[in-house]
C-alpha cells in the first residue's frame, strides 16, 4: 500500500508531488533543495549552507517516516557546478557513517528548480 509522507519541517511541495512515498519498507524521497521550511526562503550564497539545508530537509522527512540517514540506501545529488563537488561532499558526508554510507551518483545539470545550486533525493529502507 502506498503511504504519503509529508512534514511541515521540510518545504511543502511546489507541484503535483509529495515529499516522500512509503511503499512497504521502502521510502522514496523527492529531491530537496535548500528551501528553509520555516521562512519559505531559499538559503543561498554559500554551497555548504545550501547543502546543509537540503540535508536537514531530508532528515526531517526521514524522521517523519520513522527513519534516519542509516536507513538510506541510495541518493542522488544534482549540482549546477561540479566545481562545488568537494564542498558539497564534505557536508553530505558529515551526515553518514562512511562504513555504511549509501550508494550515490552526483551529476552536474544545466538548471535546478528555483535556480538553486544543489538538489538531493534519497531512497531509504526500513530494516
Automatic annotation (TrEMBL):
Residue stretches in coiled coil: none
Signal peptide boundaries: none
UniProt GO MF annotations: deaminase activity
Matches recorded under SUPFAM superfamilies: YjgF-like
GO cellular component, one term: cytosol
Record-linked InterPro entries: RidA, RutC-like_sf, YjgF/YER057c/UK114
Similarity comment text for this entry: Belongs to the RutC family.
Protein name: RidA family protein
Species for this entry: Maribacter aurantiacus
